[in-house]
Design a protein that fits this description.
Radius of gyration: 16 Å
Mean pLDDT: 95
Order of helices and strands: HHHHH
CATH class: Mainly Alpha
CATH superfamily: Ferritin, core subunit, four-helix bundle
Shape: globular
Strand content: under 5%
Number of strands: 0
Distance between the termini: 26 Å
CATH architecture: Up-down Bundle
Helix content: 55-70%
Structural class: mainly alpha
Number of domains: 1
Length: 168
Amino acid sequence: MPPLSVNKPYPDVNELSPDARALRIISPAYAGAAGELNAVLLYTYAGLLFGREGHDDFAEAIGGIAVAEMVHLKLLGGAITALGAAPVFTANPPCLFNFYSSKYVVYSRTLINVAEDGIRAEKQAIRGYERMLGMLKNARVSELIARIVEDERLHLAEWEKILKAVKS
C-alpha cells in the first residue's frame, strides 16, 4: 500500500549536522505521546478495525496514512541521528528515560470515534509541528518539518472525509 503523502520530495536528512537545540525541539515528534510512532500504531489499529467492520476502502486509506507516518518516523529518526543523538524511542533522545509507551494509543471501539481520534491526532500533530517551526532556527530542519506538515494536512482531510462517510 503506497503512503498517503503530498507528491513532493522530502529534504535529505543526511545533510544535517549536529544541533542540540534543533534536536531538543523535534524529538517529541518522533516518539513522544503524540509523535509519529504513536500515529503509526493508532492508524494500524484503526485500519484493522475498519477492515474487520467491512470498510475495506477506508481501511486501505488509513493504511496509506499509517505508511506515510512510518516514513515520517524514519525521517525524524534520521534527523535525530544526524543532529547528534541515537534514535531511541523516547521523547528526549539521547536520554534513556521517558520511553515511548503504547499506553498513549487511543483504542476507541466505534468507527465514528476512531475517525474522530484520527482527526484529533492530525490536528495535534499539525499544531505541534507549527510550534516547532516557530522555535527552530535551523533552516534545514525547518524544511523537513514544513514538508511533514504538508502530509499531515492531507491526512487530516482524509480523516474528515472518512468521518463524514461513516456518519452518513
